[in-house]
Design a protein that fits this description.
195 residues, alpha+beta, 5-stranded antiparallel sheet, 4-stranded mixed sheet, 4 helices, 30% strand, elongated
């Protein structure tokens, strides 16, 4: 009886403390290539205000969106950032406002940022900025595969793309296996004939 009462109290306390939400995300993995002069730059992800509002709604938080200050004051599930990296300056393009977040590279020289998996748009952007350049990168046609959206930026040419992947069609794989079997059988036949 004591166990049932204790268990019931624990459940009630857990429910009173708050809800726990499972958040499914995918990762943007951004890599810079061809920076021959090793120029310093700042890389920002530009989150549309619509995405921040979407993340607030998905987490069932009772927060009124008030621009940059919302991200600075609250921790919003699905937007995992260092508060110090949130920029006060808002970027605006075609009437859409974007919050700028400074990104830092990890030990593999990759800049990572997680996005809610069920967000329907790829309307985030990247911005690379230093004294010589201020370049905005659109990624709306990029694809997510295995929970990652890999992005490669050529610093010298200001080109952004998804890394080339060698894709071997299934038909070619079958032909290669068939060819290997024929070579092996032929080799065995040749050895038997010599003996």
């Amino acid at each position: 009886m004591k166990r049932v009462i204790t268990f019931s109290i624990l459940i009630i306390l857990t429910l009173m403390v708050g809800n726990v939400y499972a958040i499914d995300t995918f990762d943007f993995q951004f890599q810079v290539s061809n920076n021959k002069e090793n120029e310093d730059f700042d890389l920002y992800i530009l989150l549309p205000e619509k995405y921040v509002i979407y993340a607030i709604n998905q987490s069932n938080l009772e927060i009124n969106y008030e621009g940059v200050e919302t991200l600075k004051q609250y921790s919003i599930p699905g937007i995992d950032i260092e508060k110090d990296n949130i920029q006060d300056e808002i970027y605006e393009e075609k009437g859409v406002k974007y919050i700028q977040i400074l990104l830092e590279k990890n030990s593999k020289d990759i800049y990572e940022f997680s996005i809610l998996e069920n967000y329907p748009n790829m309307d985030m952007k990247y911005r690379i900025k230093n004294s010589d350049k201020d370049y905005i990168m659109h990624i709306d046609n990029f694809k997510v595969k295995d929970g990652k959206c890999e992005i490669e930026y050529n610093y010298e040419k200001d080109e952004i793309k998804q890394p080339d992947k060698l894709v071997i069609p299934p038909g070619v794989i079958v032909l290669m296996i068939l060819l290997a079997v024929i070579v092996i059988v032929g080799g065995i036949s040749y050895v038997k004939q010599k003996n």
